[in-house]
Write a structure and sequence with these properties.
The protein is of the alpha/beta class and 505 residues long. The chain is built from 17 helices and 17 strands. β6 and β7 form a beta hairpin.
C-alpha cells in the first residue's frame, strides 16, 4: 500500500480507504478460489494436526470446527500442500504427511449430511483450479472428486452396502460423525496395505461402541484423542474471533441438561438410539461388598441381604446370568455375573459353585421364559426342568418378558435428577459392581432401539423396541426389575409359590 503524502490528510484518508477496500475485495476473491490458503485453525484443530499418531480422533461438541479440520487435512494430503505460519511454524506433523497422488475416502452417516455440512465446507476451502472433475450420484449428491495431480476422494455413507467399504484400499480416511462398527472395520482394513492415516471427527450422539473400541484405546502412539468443547472455537490461533462466546452461552441455555452434556461439552452421553440414556458410570457403578450370613463383614443395615439370580440361557450364544442383592431400602446391587458356554449341566454346576463361593443367601431364581420352556432334544424335558435334575439341582421360576414394560421399569430403577445433588430422595435404585459385571454393564450401555419400523424412508418412525444384538445383559436386568424385588418380601418371607426350593450341592 502506497499513498501520496503530499496530498491533504482528508484525501490521504479517502485514498487509504479505497485501497483498503481493493485489498479486501482481492482477499475475498482469492478466498473464493483458494480458501485453503487462507485457513487459520483454532488451537484444538492445530493440536489435532500436530499429532504423530496414525489415527487422530476429535471428540467434541457442536460447532468446534470438526468438519473443517477434516476438510483441511483431506485437501492437504490430496495436494501435498501443508500450511504453516510465522508464529506457529509448520502445522501438520511430518508423520502425518502423504505424497500425492493419493486415494482418500470420506465416510459419514447419510447423504443429506454431505449436502448440508461436508460439501459446503469442502467447497469453501477446495482450490477449484486443482480439481479436474467432480462426480455425483443420480440424486445429485457428491460421490467422487478427481484432482489434476491424480489424487481421488470417494464419498461413502452408512446407507450404502457393506461391499462398497470392503472393495478398496486407502491412503487417508476421514470419518465425519459416528459410523457403524462393521463399516469402520472395513475402512481400517483398507488402510493397512498403504499404511494409511485416519481422522475421525464426531459428536457422541450415536454409536456408543466408538467410546470403548476407539476413544478408550487412546495410547498416544497409534491413537490420539483431542477433546474439545464448543467454547474452544471462539478464537483462532491468531486471536481473531470465530464464534461469539455470548452466543454460545445463549445457545447452551436453550438446551436441556442431557443435550448440553453432549452438544456443548462433547460428553459420551448418547442421546439418539441408546435405550438407557439415564445410565451414568459415575453414578451407577459402585464399589460394594455382599455380606453373607455369619461373615465378619457387616451389611450396612445389619442383615445379610437376600439374593436373586437371573438367567438368560442360549443354545448358540453364551449363557448369561447375574446375581443381585437387595438392601433394606430396596436398592438393587448387581454383584456378580456368569457368562459361559457349555451344556445345561455345566451351567447348573457353575451356578451352584458361584453361589457357594460368594456365600449368597439365595431367595429367588428367574429364567428367560421363552428359552426356559424350550424342550431339550435329548430328553424331551424343558430347559427349566433339565436344570432341576440331579446331581446339580437348580430351580428357576419364569421371568416376566414384557419388553416395553420391562424397559420402562429399568429406566425407573436407573432414574435420578441429574440437575440436583444426589441424596436419599434423589438417587437411583440400581447399581453395578465396577469390577465384577463388565459384560452386563457393556450390554446396558450399548442397548439400542431399532432405528426404524419400516425399511423405506416413508416408514422411518422410531421403534420403541431394542435391537436383538448384544442384549443378554440388558435382558437379565429387565427380568430382574420386572420381578419387583423388595427386601421385606425376600428377607422376611415371601409367598410359598414364590419361595426358592431347596437346592442340592
Amino acid at each position: 500500500m502506497s499513498l501520496n503524502v503530499d496530498l491533504p490528510l482528508e484525501q490521504q484518508h479517502i485514498g487509504f480507504l479505497r485501497e483498503f477496500d481493493e485489498l479486501e475485495r482481492e482477499e475475498s476473491r482469492r478466498k473464493k478460489t483458494d480458501g485453503f490458503a487462507y485457513f487459520v485453525p483454532n488451537q484444538k484443530q492445530l493440536d489435532s494436526f500436530r499429532s504423530d499418531c496414525p489415527t487422530v480422533i476429535i471428540v467434541a461438541g457442536n460447532r468446534i470446527g470438526k468438519t473443517t479440520s477434516g476438510c483441511i487435512e483431506l485437501i492437504s494430503h490430496c495436494l501435498g500442500r501443508y500450511l504453516s505460519c510465522s508464529c506457529h511454524g509448520e502445522w501438520m506433523s511430518t508423520k502425518r504427511r502423504l505424497r500425492p497422488p493419493i486415494r482418500a475416502v470420506i465416510v459419514t452417516t447419510e447423504y443429506p449430511i454431505i449436502e448440508r455440512a461436508i460439501e459446503p465446507t469442502l467447497m469453501m476451502y477446495l482450490p477449484l483450479s486443482e480439481v479436474e472433475g467432480i462426480k455425483r450420484t443420480p440424486q445429485g449428491y457428491l460421490r467422487r472428486i478427481h484432482f489434476k495431480n491424480g489424487s481421488t476422494v470417494d464419498v461413502l455413507t452408512n446407507e450404502m452396502d457393506q461391499l462398497a467399504f470392503e472393495s478398496a484400499n486407502w491412503d487417508f480416511a476421514w470419518i465425519d460423525e459416528p459410523t457403524q462398527k462393521s463399516k469402520y472395520e472395513a475402512i481400517t482394513r483398507g488402510l493397512l496395505d498403504r499404511g494409511g492415516l485416519a481422522r475421525i471427527t464426531f459428536t457422541p450422539l450415536i454409536e456408543p461402541w466408538m467410546k470403548e473400541d476407539l476413544v478408550d484405546k487412546e495410547d498416544g502412539k497409534w491413537i490420539e484423542v483431542i477433546r474439545a468443547v464448543t467454547y474452544d472455537n471462539t478464537r483462532d490461533i491468531h486471536g481473531k474471533t470465530i464464534l461469539s462466546g455470548e452466543l454460545i452461552q445463549r445457545w447452551e441455555a436453550s438446551l436441556d441438561i442431557d443435550a448440553k452434556r453432549t452438544r456443548v461439552y462433547g460428553d459420551f452421553f448418547h442421546i439418539r438410539g441408546v435405550v438407557y440414556k439415564e445410565y451414568s458410570p459415575f453414578i451407577h457403578e459402585r464399589d460394594f461388598i455382599y455380606a453373607p450370613p455369619g461373615s465378619t463383614t457387616q451389611s450396612p443395615y445389619g442383615y445379610p441381604d437376600p439374593v436373586v439370580c437371573v438367567l438368560d440361557p442360549h443354545s448358540r450364544n453364551p449363557h448369561h446370568a447375574i446375581w443381585a442383592f437387595i438392601d433394606r431400602m430396596d436398592n438393587l446391587f448387581i454383584d456378580r455375573e456368569l457368562v459361559m458356554e457349555g451344556t445345561l449341566r455345566d451351567l447348573a454346576k457353575m451356578i451352584l459353585l458361584t453361589e457357594q463361593k460368594a456365600g449368597y443367601k439365595m431367595k429367588r431364581r428367574l429364567i428367560d421364559p421363552n428359552f426356559g420352556r424350550t424342550p431339550v432334544i435329548t430328553t424331551g424335558r424343558t430347559v427349566i426342568d433339565e436344570l432341576a435334575q440331579p446331581p446339580f439341582v437348580v430351580r428357576f421360576g419364569e421371568a416376566n418378558d414384557d419388553k416395553q414394560a420391562g424397559i420402562l421399569k429399568v429406566k425407573e430403577y436407573l432414574h435420578f435428577d441429574s440437575t440436583q445433588p444426589l441424596s436419599l430422595t434423589n438417587s437411583p435404585k440400581l447399581f453395578f459392581s465396577k469390577d465384577r459385571v463388565a459384560k452386563t454393564i457393556h450390554s446396558i450401555r450399548h442397548y439400542q432401539f431399532s432405528e426404524w419400523k419400516g425399511r423405506t424412508k416413508d416408514e422411518r418412525d422410531p421403534k420403541e423396541e431394542g435391537k436383538d444384538k448384544d442384549t443378554h445383559g440388558s435382558d437379565v436386568i429387565r427380568y430382574l426389575c420386572m420381578s419387583n424385588p423388595t427386601f421385606s418380601r425376600l428377607h422376611d418371607g415371601i409367598n410359598k409359590q414364590e419361595e426358592l426350593s431347596e437346592v442340592a450341592y
